[in-house]
Structure prediction request, 466 residues.
Amino acid sequence: MMHSEVSYTSVLSAIAVDDPDIGHALSMLTVLAPRPPDAAGIGRVCRGSLTAVRAVISMIGTPSEKLLKIESDMRALAHVVAQELRESGTQELALPMLARTGKYPQWSVLAALAEPDMPVGARLAAGVELLRSWKDGCEITKAATADIAAAIKEEPISMHGLRLLLEGLTPDEEIASEWHRRLRRSWRQAVLHFGEVGTTPPPATFEDRARGQILESSVYASAARRAGASNHRQLSKLQSNSTLAQIGNWIESDDFRGVYGFVTGTTGFTIDLIPSIPLQSPTVQSDWVVVIDVATGCLKMDVSVLVQEAARAPMATTIMSNFVCCKPMPKKLADQLRSRLEKYPNARWLRDLYPEATALDARSSVLQCHDEIKPSWSRLRRSAGTFIRNLEIDNLLACMISGDFGHIPRSKLYYACVEPKELFEASARFYQGAGWGAPVPMPTDTLAFGCRVVPTDAQIRNINQW
Prediction:
């Protein structure tokens, strides 16, 4: 007699009693993909996960022993599950998880991967995210799960196209799908952690490095840094005043070091990244991290990497917001950028507007100084937030202006919401203190920054009406 899928729970309890490796694999699988109470589709989930891991092995070149061990344990788990299903007489119904994609999305996509006609790209996308989550001991993010689901549904990518994508050889403008972008980003991490020692990962893209530096500023911030204490990696107060004033002088003279200094102080990026910041245009890729909008004179910085699982709510009842900091530039600098774009209409990156610019060393001094610890470009990127806080500007606003989110706990981004007017007024105070002049007006269509579930005043009134 064949039992219904409710019997999956009894199958689950019978697995891996005597084998710790299989038990660990099962435990990790249910962490990566939270399961429904009845564990429906566990056979498909195990097979789908195994094919995903094998897809990574087939493309990674020389897999590490760690990756081979994961594949071995997953293979053993899939075998034991299949055996238990047969012995218990439990029948796998066709696609048992299709109706549960909302509540158990990770479990559902892994089950779908067991289908024999599944595209290699979809399995590879799932395998990379599965392994990254395995390494971190956490569930596959909902954003990554959505991209895996898109990879399952969309037109398959050819093996040649897949290899070009993984090697970083596909031009940004030819990448049409968001799951392609995520796969390219995540593949580098997979190679670093699961490739054999000596395996060369594909070069990190500008967006990869920019996201990494945004995360680094927040994740590795010490308690002292959040409290506003300075250290040897920052400029002294006197050095900050002199350095920012010098940047103001360069802006006045239309020297490339003026815009490079401004962007360093308002993004927190290393100086070698600054020339590669894209100019906003119809051809700029959709997953940009930072762009310069020359038309409005604003620097836009997307820090959603810090809050990947932030809640959303119906827009009609909440303040319209996102996690893009729209920072108005000093008027003088904005005018110079427009003039240069007229002169170089084909410019795509900041460096194209300044063909006379030379490479700057992060360790070199921004200005002539006899101090033992020089005011370097590297120290400048870590100092703007503290300078802004010393002007008695709110900590969150200091983070938004400087791009250094080490001055607040990340949890604040999940509930705080800042109106554009507040950011404009704080930027004006910073520019005045730095000697950079007044900022350009904030664009009228700028959204608030931060939490996307803050109710509007009208909604609050409606809630409290009898």
